[in-house]
Amino acid sequence: MLIVALYASAVPKLWTETIEEHRAAVRQAIVDTTAALVARGGLRSVTMSQVAEEVGIGRATLYKYFPDVDAILHAWHERQVGGHLEELAELARQRVGPVERLHAVLAAYALIRHEHHGHELAALLHQGDHIAHAEKALASFVEDLLDAGVQNGEIRSDVAAGELASYCLHALTAADDLPSKAAVRRLVAVTISGLARGDSESQSRSGE
User: Fold this and answer.
1) What pTM, to 2 d.p., does this model score?
2) Domains identified in the chain and CATH numbers
3) Which of 62, 169, 176, 181 is the Cys-Cys partner for 117 at CB 3.0 to 4.6 Å?
């Protein structure tokens, strides 16, 4: 242990960071290459030998990063989901009103669903902890935007923001099967119209 500790302290930080950057680059190349191979030849056509050859590394090196093709594909999907979530979070941070931000987030979410529905990889991999985390995070910042809209009087307050967030996200799953982006935009408009403060709120309260 003493020798290991002395060795670790003697390794220059720059060299260590370079090694880590190299490993990250190799991992990314493996993931990108595997996704490209699947897109080109189909999900079941890809082997670890093929991935190693395409990336330009040995099979032994490849196995140091991933145990099998399924693990690579799960890493690819986790990266895709994380990228989409960051895109939506960025829209939620825009310097505009909460309803404008909400519209932007829901429109982007619906288009993501529309564009990726039916993708062989997404259909296979749409499960796991990263999906649950992404869904929870998305619901949370949609709820925050709804709360802000309630505070400034633009969003109805007769239904809890958490329930409205669930309504929005479930309603927009219909984007999966719509024929065009124009149809997706119409769906988003209809969904958001149900959130507006107005007659619907007063009618709901009168029926309590």
Assistant:
1) 0.76
2) 1-67 (1.10.10.60), 68-208 (1.10.357.10)
3) 176
